[in-house]
Design a protein that fits this description.
By secondary structure, this protein is an all-beta fold. It is built from no helices and 11 strands.
Length: 127
Amino acid sequence: QVQLAEFGGGLVQAGDSQRLSCTASGSAASRAVIGWFRQAPGNEREREFVAGITASGINKYYGRPVKGRFTIARDNAKNTVYLQMSNLKSDDTGIYYCAAAVSSSPLPRDGSEYGYWGQGTQVTVSS
C-alpha cells in the first residue's frame, strides 16, 4: 500500500520556476516507481505523463513537452519526490498528481500502471 500527498502548487508567471513535492508513505512506498502526471483544464478524461523516477532514484524519465525544463528527484530518507519545474509556460497549467507503481514495467508512462494516486495540486501559469 502507498499513500501519497502533493504540495507546492499555486499561481506563477510564465518563465518562472516552481517546485512540487510528493510525500509517500506505506509499506510499498520505498520500492515504488513514482510518477508525476497532469490534467489540463477542460480535459478531465486524460492525465498526461510528466516525469517518473525509479525506486533507487537512479533512472529518471520525462514526457516530451517538459524534457529539458523539468527535473525529477527523489530523497528516500525523507520519502519525498520532487518535481522542479523551470521556464514554465501557460500550457503547463493543470492539476498535477503524483502516483506510485509497485508492480509495473521498468519505466511506466501509462497511468493505468500506477495503482496509487495523490489528491492533486493545482498549478496555474499566467502569461
